[in-house]
Amino acid sequence: MAHLLVIGASQGIGLETVKAALVAGHRVRAFARSAGKIALSDPNLERFPGDALSAPDIAGALEGVDAVVQALGVPVRDLLGPVRLFSDATNVLVPAMEQAGVRRLVAVTGFGTGDSRAAISPLQRLPFRLVFGRAYDDKDAQEMRIRRSSLDWTFVRPGVLTGGAATGRYQVLDRKSSWRNGLIARADVAQFIVREIAEGGHVGRAVVLISHALPL
């Protein structure tokens, strides 16, 4: 069993990853500014309040862990202004991991980041750009910084996120020719992340995750 640091652990995919990792028997350090409010009870859970942009906070959180899951998000209201959280936090995390000797990183970005942007259908491209353009420009910078590192990284690029329980029925699209947008539950993304930490089947690669493809 691994000792995992989950950054962005208080909500969304981060929180679902904490839950899935605990079920799998891992020790989890749940890092978020509001980590103290995480309403889970498990002897393997450590709540670690901190700021992802603070080098001392990140350095402290990395002590003794085997792998890191970076699952940051921004509120919808912030998408219309400049977005720097993803790249700024990564510029703190990567050198801290390299210095601490923690090599394994699973970073949640999204379908449309990096070289998957070309796979967005023409009908989806304009609304995607209008709503998510600034955030995904920053996610591009996030991925580029990780690619330049010495870490053993995997990029997880989920499609359109939904709620609900994990289904276990999703597609791991690991070839560029297969990439397309679709729906997927956050809990299914979390299950994949925990499996990837254990098996390491996609080190140095990006995968797109969907359960149901969206119409073109």
Automatic annotation (TrEMBL):
Indicate the segments forming the NAD(P)-binding domain, all copies: 8-198
Transmembrane residues, as ranges? Answer: none
Q: Which domain of life is it from?
A: Bacteria
Q: InterPro entries under this entry?
A: NAD(P)-bd_dom, NAD(P)-bd_dom_sf, Polyketide_Oxido-like
What GO MF terms are annotated?
Answer: biliverdin reductase [NAD(P)H] activity; riboflavin reductase (NADPH) activity
- The name of this protein is NAD(P)-dependent oxidoreductase
